[in-house]
C-alpha cells in the first residue's frame, strides 16, 4: 500500500506583489543625446539605463498616457528625468540634464518649419537641371545600339580552315 501524502501550504514560496503606488522598474534606451547639468558629461543616444517609470498624472494626448522616466547619470549618479511627448513622437528632458541638439538636426527642423513652397520649387529646379543630362545619356545609348560593327569577311583559307 502507498503512503498518503499530505499537502503542506507552509512549504510554498510567498509571492510578493509590488505595491500599486511604486514606479515600475524598466530598462530603456536613451532616445537622444543629453548633457548632465551636475558634472557636464555627455550621455549618447542609445545608452541603456535601468530606470523607474511612472505615469504623469493628468496629462494625456488623444487617450495616450504620458510617462516619466527617472535614471542616474553614468558619471556622477545624479538623478535625471525625461518625459514622453506622444504628440511629437519624442521625449523632453524634464530635470537634471539638457538636450544636445546637433547642427544637422537644427537645420532639418528649420527646413521642416519653413515654407513648403520653397521645397517644392527646389525639387522642380533640380528636375529641370537633371532632364537635359538624362536626354543626352539616352541619345548616346540609342546611338550605341544603332551602330553595328562590321568585320571584314574572311575566307576559310585566311582563318586556317580546310579548303
UniProtKB/TrEMBL annotation:
Pfam families assigned: Saf4_Yju2
Database matches in PANTHER family: SPLICING FACTOR YJU2
Protein name, entry field: Uncharacterized protein
InterPro entries: Saf4/Yju2
Amino acid at each position: 500500500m502507498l503512503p498518503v501524502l499530505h499537502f503542506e501550504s507552509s512549504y510554498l514560496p510567498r509571492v510578493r506583489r509590488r505595491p500599486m503606488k511604486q514606479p515600475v522598474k524598466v530598462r530603456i534606451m536613451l532616445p537622444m543625446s543629453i548633457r548632465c547639468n551636475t558634472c557636464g558629461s555627455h550621455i549618447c543616444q542609445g545608452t541603456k539605463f535601468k530606470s523607474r517609470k511612472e505615469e504623469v498624472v493628468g496629462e494625456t494626448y488623444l487617450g495616450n498616457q504620458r510617462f516619466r522616466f527617472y535614471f542616474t547619470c553614468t558619471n556622477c549618479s545624479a538623478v535625471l528625468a525625461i518625459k514622453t511627448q506622444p504628440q511629437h513622437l519624442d521625449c523632453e528632458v524634464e530635470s537634471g540634464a539638457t538636450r544636445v541638439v546637433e547642427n544637422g538636426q537644427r537645420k532639418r527642423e528649420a527646413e521642416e518649419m519653413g515654407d513648403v513652397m520653397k521645397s517644392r520649387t527646389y525639387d522642380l529646379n533640380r528636375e529641370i537641371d537633371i532632364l537635359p543630362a538624362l536626354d543626352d545619356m539616352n541619345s548616346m545609348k540609342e546611338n550605341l545600339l544603332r551602330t553595328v560593327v562590321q568585320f571584314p569577311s574572311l575566307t576559310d583559307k585566311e582563318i586556317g580552315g580546310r579548303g
